[in-house]
Design a protein that fits this description.
Layout (H helix, E strand, L loop, with lengths): L3 H24 L6 H7 L8 H4 L3 H12 L17 H13 L5 H16 L1 H10 L1 H17 L8 H21 L10 H15 L4 H8 L2 H4 L21
Length: 240
């Protein structure tokens, strides 16, 4: 068990982060002050916040990481690179959509979205804290899986966008622009459907893999399903 001082320190950090999320969601990141956060956290002196966080940006970083658990995956990419996509992609998508189970995480998402649209400088900061890390993680992972022959070869950046896009739309159509099925379509069902559709589309092409490996199968002419013709010409009958 951690020493009492460590427990008190971590408890105070959580108290400040919870208060900061509330204040950021109400006033926006730029307009929120340490005085507002201290008041919401029941801290007498706003200056005490610097005992727990370097500055307001550092506080925001910890708030996002606390309420968006998917970000924790991006700090240890080596654990995932060689694991098959059937394991990693559901875990990635589930961590992303788990935010919908926690109202504070939804508040964080809306805060980030609103602030990023209004303030380019804030958007850049948010991007470095979250989206850039997640996108880089996914691109690196998909590229590695293509090298291993588990996924179809294509631009890994385009492939990453095709995977992330449906998750973003799912959250938007549930929390910002609700659709008729917003409350009935469960995150787990969305993840299962997304991964199944994505893996079917990204299934490796055996012929492309054979070409890359230089195997005899790659040099064998393909036959037309309809006419029995080969890829490079018509099959002649021996009696002709």
């Amino acid at each position: 068990m951690p020493p009492r001082d460590e427990q008190d320190y971590e408890s105070k950090r959580v108290q400040i982060m919870d208060a900061a999320l509330e204040v950021f969601a109400r006033h926006g990141f730029e307009r929120a002050t340490n005085k507002d956060i201290a008041r919401a956290a029941n801290i007498k002196s706003p200056g005490l916040i610097y005992h727990y966080f370097k500055d307001k940006t550092d506080l925001l970083k910890h708030v996002i990481e606390r309420y968006v658990p998917a970000l924790q995956l991006f700090d240890r990419p080596g654990e995932f690179l060689d694991r098959p996509p059937e394991e990693v992609l559901p875990q990635f998508a589930s961590a992303f959509t788990q935010a919908l189970q926690h109202r504070p995480a939804i508040a964080t998402f809306k805060l980030v979205l609103g602030e990023s649209i209004r303030k380019p400088a804030v958007a850049d900061m948010f991007n470095r804290l979250g989206p850039s890390r997640g996108f880089g993680f996914l691109v690196t992972y998909l590229e590695r899986q293509m090298e291993l022959g588990r996924l179809r070869r294509m631009d890994p950046g385009a492939a990453a966008r095709c995977f992330v896009g449906p998750m973003v739309v799912f959250i938007l159509t549930r929390e910002v622009f609700p659709q008729p099925d917003s409350k009935t379509l469960q995150p787990s069902e969305m993840v299962e459907t997304l991964v199944e559709v994505y893996l079917r589309g990204m299934a490796p092409d055996p012929r492309a893999n054979a070409l890359a490996a230089g195997t005899p199968e790659a040099r064998r002419p393909r036959r037309s399903r309809r006419s029995g013709k080969q890829a490079h010409g018509t099959v002649q009958n021996p009696g002709e």
